[in-house]
Specification:
Length: about 300
């Protein structure tokens, strides 16, 4: 039996502006994981997961990405007809901008290569994961898979730049789930229209890019005050672009009133999650509890 994991991701800074060639920073969230267990069985490939239980050949059409990934990975490994029991367990909520599909793919590829005792380079891992991500998302940026498979923050640009980002900050991040599924495609269209037909959309995008660079410096220099201020300003920009949500705004207000140094939505918006920065663990726990009391469906605390 083999067990391998991957982690969730959140965008710390740069959502939406990254579409317009500005940088983004994503963080792997080690406390929220997806795990894959593989066991040898007779008689085909069986899947156990929260979305499907049964033979791989009978899997639902909305899970075609995972089916294709498993089949193509086994072909690469020279084991196309092996009987396997694959159990997928994920703590990552779907459609919250936390990279759930990429995390599942990363854990699957890692587990399959380990089960057959084959070496797996990072480049091969990302190439294999891209098989399912293209089916699920059409034209994925690569940010989710890069972060789900990383131990360090990622600096990302649409031109293909993906690199590890130095971090030297002593703080905590609280993630709060609004319980509302994010609507990334709709949010992207709203921003597009704001830029094309509004007067300030382009300026807001440029400012989000500037804030991303400031965030990188704050992470490097342990400047938590500047990091919190950048998060607050970024959220104001995202709200002006039209991609926030009343449930998100409520959680932002609660977090800031509870001692957070800064808070913002994370991901595509129109729902999804917020992130709140705190200087210490006790404040993070208080923010987390107040978010739950205020309507968040789940919270997580991550030490930066």
């Amino acid at each position: 039996m083999i067990y391998k994991t991957s982690n969730a991701k959140i965008i710390l800074m740069g959502e939406h502006s990254v579409v317009y060639n500005q940088p983004a920073i994503a963080l792997p969230i080690s406390n929220i994981k997806t795990g894959v267990t593989i066991q040898d069985i007779q008689g085909g490939i069986q899947i156990r997961s929260r979305y499907f239980n049964g033979f791989l050949e009978d899997i639902h059409s909305n899970l075609l990405g995972i089916k294709t990934l498993i089949k193509q990975t086994l072909t690469v490994l020279g084991q196309p007809n092996t009987g396997l029991l694959i159990t997928i367990e994920s703590e990552i909520p779907s459609e919250r901008g936390m990279g759930s599909s990429a995390a599942t793919a990363v854990a699957l590829v890692r587990a399959l290569f380990a089960f057959f005792d084959r070496p797996l380079s990072r480049n091969t891992l990302l190439k294999m994961v891209d098989i399912s991500e293209k089916i699920i998302h059409g034209n994925p940026s690569g940010l989710d898979s890069a972060t789900a498979s990383s131990n360090t923050p990622i600096w990302f640009k649409r031109d293909g730049t993906i690199k590890a980002l130095p971090i030297n900050v002593n703080a905590y991040l609280v993630i709060g789930d609004s319980g509302i599924k994010g609507k990334t495609s709709e949010a992207v269209e709203i921003v597009k229209n704001k830029i094309q037909f509004g007067t300030d959309g382009g300026l807001l995008i440029k400012n989000l890019g500037k804030l991303t660079s400031q965030t990188a410096a704050a992470l490097r220099e342990n400047d938590v005050s500047s990091l919190g201020a950048a998060m607050n300003e970024a959220h104001q920009n995202l709200r002006q672009l039209g991609v926030s949500h009343p449930a998100v705004e409520k959680l932002i207000q609660i977090a800031n009133a509870s001692g957070a140094l800064g808070s913002k939505l994370t991901g595509g918006g129109l729902g999804g999650c917020i992130i709140a920065l705190t200087a210490d663990e006790s404040t993070a726990k208080q923010v987390s509890q107040n978010l739950i009391d205020g309507g968040a469906t789940a919270t997580w605390i991550e030490k930066l």
